[in-house]
User: Fold this.
Amino acid sequence: KKFSKGYCIRCNEVIKHDVNRPYCLDCYRTWDRFGNPDYLEKYCHSCGKKFEASMAKPQCYSCWKK
Assistant:
């Protein structure tokens, strides 16, 4: 399944779906200060549900399988 929209993994704002860019601009700027790809966030980039996502792993298992 192709996702048409994504969610910021930190604030859950609707953004363009791109697993290489799972943050909205404001949250990315904050994350970029430290740049830890394993820092745990709160939401799946693909479905927006609660999930311990990170830059390295932005999707929950269900979405990753799709």
Remarks:
- Residues 25-32 form the longest helix (8 residues).
- The chain has a mean pLDDT of 94.
- Strands lie at 5-7, 14-16.
